[in-house]
Amino acid sequence: MLSKYVHDTLGIVTLSQSRRVVRVSISVRPSGEVRVSYPTSISTRRALEFLESKRDWIERTKERLAQHATPTHTPEQIEQLRAIAKRTLPTKVAQLASKFGFRYGRVTIRATRSKWGCCTSQNNLSLSLFLVTLPEELQDFVILHELCHTVHHNHSAAFHALLDRCVGGKEQELRRQLRTYHPV
């Protein structure tokens, strides 16, 4: 169940109560939107108390995301990024797959704004053309993340262990860095 709550300093907060959620969590989107997810076993009042206890963290996170926000691209810029992505990303995928022994289907480039990439159950990779705006180390991290999904189609401990090995033990650090960017 989704609802909106107007917080005095954080603005509009989306409240998401679900049977599938096991604990209260807060996310801050690159747009600055704040979302509180919580299980049905917890009252909205308790979820809002949790939100209040994390207000300083939320405000710091919103400021950090605002500093890294990229202006919206013009259609011409998007076409330039698409050309660069089509020219460079499939080669990068092939090199990383060869280096780490992954097998995958085809690679497609899309103007995805909600995520950097995905891996289908047939091991086809779809990458956001905005991936080329990231530093090279983060491009490789996203590609390796998707390649690891060709082995583990989930985010299990085995998946994270494999990804961590591929990135030399820097998965947590790279994931933190990646969160400061978003496809736009």
Question: Your description of this structure?
Answer:
The protein is an alpha/beta fold. The chain has 2 domains: 2-68, no CATH class; 75-178, Metalloproteases ("zincins"), catalytic domain (Zincin-like). The protein is built from 6 helices and 7 strands; from the N terminus they run ββββαααβββααα. β3 and β4 (34-39) form a beta hairpin. α3 crosses α4 (136-148). The longest helix has 26 residues, at 75-100.
Task: List the SSEs and their pairings.
Layout: E1 2-7, E2 11-18, E3 25-28, E4 34-39, H1 44-53, H2 55-68, H3 75-100, E5 107-110, E6 117-119, E7 125-128, H4 136-148, H5 157-166, H6 171-178
Parallel strand pairs: 2-4, 5-7
Antiparallel strand pairs: 1-2, 3-4, 6-7
Largest sheet: 4 strands, mixed
Q: Give the helix level as a range of percent.
A: 40-55%
Tell the overall outline.
globular
**β-strand number:** 7
CATH architecture call of the largest domain:
2-Layer Sandwich
* Widest sheet: strand ordering: 1-2-4-3
CATH class of the largest domain: Alpha Beta
Low-confidence stretches: none
Distance, first to last CA: 28 Å
> Mean pLDDT, as a whole number?
92
Going by helix content, strand content and strand pairing, the class is alpha/beta
Q: CATH homologous superfamily name of the largest domain?
A: Metalloproteases ("zincins"), catalytic domain
Q: How many H/I helical runs?
A: 6
